[in-house]
Amino acid sequence: MNMNDTLFLFLCTLLVWLMTPGLSLFYGGLVQSKNVLNTVMQSMSAIVIVTFAWMLFGFSFSFGSGNSFFGDFTYIGLAHVGFSTQSAISPHIPLALFMLFQLMFCTIAVSILSGSIAEKMKFIPYLIFVFLWVICVYSPVAHWVWGGGWIDQLGAIDYAGGTVVHITSGISGLVLAIMIGAGKNFDKRPPHNLIITLIGAIFVWIGWYGFNVGSALSFNKIAMISFVNTVLAASAGALGWSMIEYCMKKTTSLIGMLSGMLAGLVAITPAAGFVGYMSAVVIALIGGVCCYFVINYIKGKLHYNDALDAFGIHGVGGVVGALLTGVFQSHHINGDVVNGLLLGGGMMPVINQLIAVAITIVFSGIMTFIIAKVIAQFSELGTDTEEEAQGLDYVVHGERAYFSGELNKLNRRK
């Protein structure tokens, strides 16, 4: 066991944990003030629900040896998960620490997904959906990519979760949002507090360094490359979005810059430890521009109600990043991968990435549809008229985030 690597991953685990509270604030500032607590709760409750789903089944189904498609029952209930190492998946760090690091990835995936159905889904059905989604969608895909499954055997690569985290959550969020109602609340209200969104984005940005750098599982050359690439990609994504926004609208908005930053981070996630610095910049720039066009043009034309653009940023950014990984991946940067298309590796790296992306999209979409249909047999998925009128904060949680409006009304009456 390497104590330096253990301390390094311990820090990275805490940073990735910070992403979920950060994303809760990011989303919370974007919704109506009467639904902000519910939106925050959707992310924060992910920490609770995912922890138990991961402990009981998720970790074992993801990282148990199993077969090419599904892990086995070795670690059910965290059996055999302790301070000792495991030669196949955590040869130099405690298996329990590796388990917690991966738990944080699963948690942020659920938090991302919640952005598509913000202000639109009933809370208890959402919690049930989260538990089932971790077991039936996230865990199999994690096994395919990181647990020795068929995607790994195919030769497709995903450094820190472009496929496992962002494509699964983005596609699942989109399918769930469409099932709840494509036209429901489609008239998007302006964000109620962009300062809260900014604070949340800062937490997510900081946490992403643990997300990408920690995926090396050791502070080595690959970790350092991924650190630099992550810093570059965040700025490149923000630049790409802001440039195209200025060209199209003659303005540069804060929410646009933050969305571009996220798009750049999402796009570099599958490639961070596999590509050079300039490649990272190009990937993030392309990711920022693609996400901008999907959110501002394609979304309007197709009329799907992706409430806070979880699909537009994470789904689209994950697909773009995964495919461009096959274009720019470098054996010189990381000896564990072959050269990509632009470095003389031919089309196979891109084709492998395309196969992995396509099947992950289909699998995530179908399984999400099935899970939601089953839950819908017992409960309505979408909010009712009372919840929409009075706000989810008061009706569902018995709380309000702000009281100034009510106090002002009382003062005027006096």
Automatic annotation (TrEMBL):
Belongs to the ammonia transporter channel (TC 1.A.11.2) family. Residues 8-402 form the Ammonium transporter AmtB-like domain. Pfam families: Ammonium_transp. It is found in: Cell membrane; Membrane. The keyword Transport applies. The lineage of its organism: Bacteria, Bacillati, Bacillota, Bacilli, Bacillales. Its main location: membrane. This is Ammonium transporter. It comes from Staphylococcus saprophyticus subsp. saprophyticus (strain ATCC 15305 / DSM 20229 / NCIMB 8711 / NCTC 7292 / S-41). PANTHER family: AMMONIUM TRANSPORTER MEP2. One of its GO terms (cellular component) is plasma membrane. The chain crosses the membrane at residues 36-57, 69-89, 95-114, 126-147, 159-182, 194-211, 223-244, 251-268, 274-295, 307-330, 350-372. It is a multi-pass membrane protein. Keywords: Ammonia transport, Membrane, Transmembrane, Transmembrane helix, Transport. GO terms for molecular function: ammonium channel activity.
